[in-house]
Amino acid sequence: MSDAPRILLIGSDGQVGWELRRTLAPVGQVIAASLAGEHGPAIDLVDAGSVRRVFNEVAPDAVVNAAAYTAVDKAESDPEQAQAINGDALHLIGELAATYRIPVLHYSTDFVFSGQTERPYREDDAPQPLSVYGQTKLDGEQALLASGADALVLRTAWVYGVRGRNFLLTMLNLFRERTELRIVDDQIGTPTWSRMLAEVTALILHRVFTGDLEMERIRGLYHVTSSGATSWFGFAEAIRDLSGNPCALTPIPTSDYPAPARRPAYSVLDTRKFRDTFGLLLPDWRQSLALCLADLKG
Ligand SMILES: NC(=O)c1ccc[n+]([C@@H]2O[C@H](COP(=O)([O-])OP(=O)(O)OC[C@H]3O[C@@H](n4cnc5c(N)ncnc54)[C@H](OP(=O)(O)O)[C@@H]3O)[C@@H](O)[C@H]2O)c1
C-alpha cells in the first residue's frame, strides 16, 4: 500500500466527495480531507494556512477537489464566503499543485452559462453567469486553468445522489408529505448522478497514474453530465414514476417560483469532448436515476 499513489480528496463529505471516497479507493491511497476532519485531515478552504498545511503534511501525488460553496440562493447574500471557497481557494490550490507538480481534478457548473441558447453548450462557448454562485465558480475554474498546474476541470450539472442536499431526496421527502406539487418546467438541464461523476473521475485518474493518459495532453476543461435533457418537472415526474408514487405534479414557469439567484433557462452541456478524449460512455439520465433509486430502496 505504501507505494500506492496518494490522492488528497478535498470535500470528502459532500455528495460527490462521499462517492469519490469509494470509487478512488482502488486507484490509490485516499486521504479524505473535509471541514469536519472526521475521516482524515481537517481542511477549510477559507483558511489558506490550513490548505497549505494539509498539502505539506499529505504530500499528495494528485488532488481531487469536491468541496464547494453550493448553496446557490444563499450565495446571493453571502458573496464573500462563496468567492473565498469557490474562487480564491482555487487560485491557491492551483499554485500549490503547480509547485508540487501534481495533477488536480476539480468540478465546475452549468451555472457559468446564461442559458440564452438552444443548443448544448460547448467548452469554448462564452460563459456569462447569472448568479454569485456561477460567477465564483467561473473565477475558480479560470484560476485553476491559468495556474500552470496540470488541471482538469469537469463542468457538470444538476447533481443528485443517495445523500446530501439534492433534488431527488427533496422530491422523495415531499412525496411522503404532499399529494400535489408544482414544479418548474421552463429550466432545461441534465440530471447527473454523483456516483457516475465519481466513477469517471476514478477511471481518468487511474489512467493518469498508469501513464496511459498524459496530463500535459489532456489538461483543460470538459463538460461531463449524463446524456439527454429534461426540465425540473420532467425530472420530478421520472422520480415519481420510478419510485411508484401517486403525487400529482403540475408544471409551472420559473416566474411562479421566485428564488434569490437567477438560473439559466437552458444549460444542457455538450459532452462530446469528454467522450472523445476519454472513450467513456455517459449513460442516459433516466438509466442512472433508476440505478440510484434502486440503491436507495436497498
Ligand atoms: N450539486 C449540484 O447540483 C452541482 C451542479 C453542478 C456542479 N456542481 C459542483 O460539483 C462539485 C461537488 O458538489 P456537491 O454537489 O458534491 O456539493 P456538496 O454536496 O454541497 O458538497 C460540498 C462539500 O464542500 C464542503 N465545504 C464547504 N465549504 C468548505 C470549506 N470552506 N472548506 C472545505 N470544505 C468545504 C461542504 O462541507 P459542509 O457540508 O460541511 O459545508 C461539503 O461537504 C462542486 O464543485 C459543485 O460546485 C454541483
TrEMBL record:
<dbReference type="GO" id="GO:0008831">
    <property type="term" value="F:dTDP-4-dehydrorhamnose reductase activity"/>
</dbReference>
<dbReference type="InterPro" id="IPR029903">
    <property type="entry name" value="RmlD-like-bd"/>
</dbReference>
<dbReference type="InterPro" id="IPR005913">
    <property type="entry name" value="dTDP_dehydrorham_reduct"/>
</dbReference>
<protein>
    <recommendedName>
        <fullName>dTDP-4-dehydrorhamnose reductase</fullName>
        <ecNumber>1.1.1.133</ecNumber>
    </recommendedName>
</protein>
<feature type="domain" description="RmlD-like substrate binding">
    <location>
        <begin position="6"/>
        <end position="296"/>
    </location>
</feature>
<dbReference type="Pfam" id="PF04321">
    <property type="entry name" value="RmlD_sub_bind"/>
</dbReference>
<comment type="function">
    <text>Catalyzes the reduction of dTDP-6-deoxy-L-lyxo-4-hexulose to yield dTDP-L-rhamnose.</text>
</comment>
<comment type="pathway">
    <text>Carbohydrate biosynthesis; dTDP-L-rhamnose biosynthesis.</text>
</comment>
<dbReference type="GO" id="GO:0019305">
    <property type="term" value="P:dTDP-rhamnose biosynthetic process"/>
</dbReference>
<dbReference type="GO" id="GO:0005829">
    <property type="term" value="C:cytosol"/>
</dbReference>
<dbReference type="InterPro" id="IPR036291">
    <property type="entry name" value="NAD(P)-bd_dom_sf"/>
</dbReference>
<dbReference type="GO" id="GO:0009243">
    <property type="term" value="P:O antigen biosynthetic process"/>
</dbReference>
<keyword id="KW-0560">Oxidoreductase</keyword>
<keyword id="KW-0521">NADP</keyword>
<comment type="similarity">
    <text>Belongs to the dTDP-4-dehydrorhamnose reductase family.</text>
</comment>
